[in-house]
Design brief:
This protein is mainly alpha-helical. It is about 50% helix and about 10% strand. It has helices at about 5-30, 55-70, 75-90, 115-125, 130-145, 180-200, 200-220, 245-260, 265-285, 310-325, 330-345, 380-395; strands spanning about 50, 100, 105-110, 110-115, 160, 180, 220, 225, 230, 240, 295, 300-305, 305-310, 355-360. InterPro entries: 6-hairpin_glycosidase_sf (IPR008928), 6hp_glycosidase-like_sf (IPR012341), AGE/CE (IPR010819).
């Protein structure tokens, strides 16, 4: 792509982020008392839903990192989101984050899902307040003490409120019960990456290296060119399911983790695997219109042909990452096609933010809300921030601050 192409792309990404996505979330998801709302329907109507830790932590991460990278002051909404995580989602008795609470912060589901604790670490580390970093470290200590498998490595899916390993814990009813999953381990790795960047202590380094090795040696299936998704305690794959979105996301996050760890051998392996992943996903998971399908089975058979907003966001970043590593133009072109699809089909120019789910005929699914227990700004805000930084490196005059740090 020419510098002119990348400048135009960066300009459109920045405009969507600053004029559409962030204003919608800042204006539509807090009540007059500064408490996080449960959600919004696709047309903007208020959704009375439990306030999940997933939503709360991801809102905090999105606001805090957008302010930092865009060179803006951390305003009222960042502070309200931080207070929500520290005061409403946090269990004052046993520590850790509840899975979900009501509008007052009273627990609805009080178990300690490892996935949620990871996003708590990830969000809190992004804040400059000392109390936020201290809270992130407490979460690390809790899951490392109670949720880690000390014999076979990795982290169990969840614990009870008082931190006993919870058999059968799972993220949703759509998933089979599994002791360990790629999705949870991916976001634990992501959280530890940023924790190690902020607090480079030996135990965090050791755990981060262990997670990188699990992705390279246990979770990746070279014969199928994909990651398994659900595993027994001793790392036996449990289903033939694959997720193209999680694969492409894992590729670039694995590279990021290895970069922060600073281990040349692991970084070389991670970079090679990221290109392999992008090649496999491009061959089997990409539709003719440039979008990425929802999910499939080993061998590439699609089982979910809906278009998820987060999958398209991860595709854009993952393909571009593979281009930066390999220099192959086809990956840059695939990333740009992802953005074109997003801009045409997911960006909601009538009601704001992004449409989260499209059916196989690319029609918005009204049953999937604009904001809700899982529908949050994290994936598309992160993708747009990533692309602004990366496109600026490719074309230094692209529409982003030249001195903005990469998140």
């Amino acid at each position: 792509m020419t510098p002119t192409d990348t400048q135009a792309w960066a300009h459109s990404v920045r405009a969507d982020l600053t004029d559409n996505v962030l204003p919608w979330w800042q204006g539509e998801m807090f009540d007059p008392q500064g408490r996080l709302l449960g959600g919004r329907e696709l047309d903007g109507r208020l959704l009375d839903a439990p306030r999940t830790a997933v939503l709360g932590t991801r809102v905090l991460w999105s606001f805090s990192n957008a302010a930092r990278q865009l060179g803006q002051a951390r305003g009222q909404r960042v502070q309200q989101a931080l207070r929500w995580v520290l005061q409403r989602l946090t269990d004052a008795q046993h520590g850790g984050l509840f899975w979900s609470v009501d509008a007052e912060g009273h627990p609805i589901a009080d178990h300690k899902q490892t996935y949620a604790q990871a996003f708590g670490i990830y969000a809190l580390v992004s804040c400059p307040e000392p109390e936020a970093l201290a809270a992130a470290w407490r979460l690390f200590e809790l899951i490392d003490t109670h949720a880690r498998d000390p014999e076979l490595g990795g982290y169990y899916e969840g614990c009870t409120r008082d931190w006993q390993v919870l058999p059968g814990a799972k993220l949703s009813d759509a998933e089979p019960p599994a002791p360990k999953t790629t999705n949870t381990l991916l976001h634990v790795m992501e959280a530890f990456t940023e924790l190690y960047r902020a607090r480079p202590e030996a135990r965090v380094r050791e755990r981060l290296a262990e997670l990188i090795d699990l992705f390279l040696d246990k979770l990746w299936r070279p014969q199928d060119r994909c990651f398994g998704q659900f595993f027994t305690r001793d790392w036996q794959n449990m289903t033939p399911l694959l997720s193209w979105g999680h694969d492409i996301e894992s590729g670039w996050l694995l590279v990021r983790a290895a970069e922060v760890l600073g281990d040349p051998a692991r970084l070389a392996r991670a970079r090679s695997l990221a290109v392999t992943i992008a090649d496999a996903v491009l061959a089997t998971g990409m539709a003719p219109d440039g979008s990425m399908l929802g999910a499939g089975e080993f061998g590439g058979k699609a089982t979910d042909t809906r278009r998820h907003w987060w999958v398209q966001a991860e595709a854009m970043v993952g393909y571009w990452d593979a281009f930066e590593i390999s220099g192959e133009a086809r990956f840059a072109q695939a990333a740009h096609r992802s953005w074109q699809f997003i801009s045409q089909h997911h960006v909601d120019r009538q009601h704001g933010d992004w449409i989260k789910m499209l059916d196989a005929e690319l029609r918005p699914l009204p049953s999937t809300p604009k904001a809700g227990p899982w529908e949050c700004p994290y994936h598309h805000v992160r993708a747009e921030l990533e692309m602004l930084s990366r496109l600026a490196r490719h074309a230094p005059t692209a529409a982003t601050r030249s001195d903005a740090p990469v998140p």
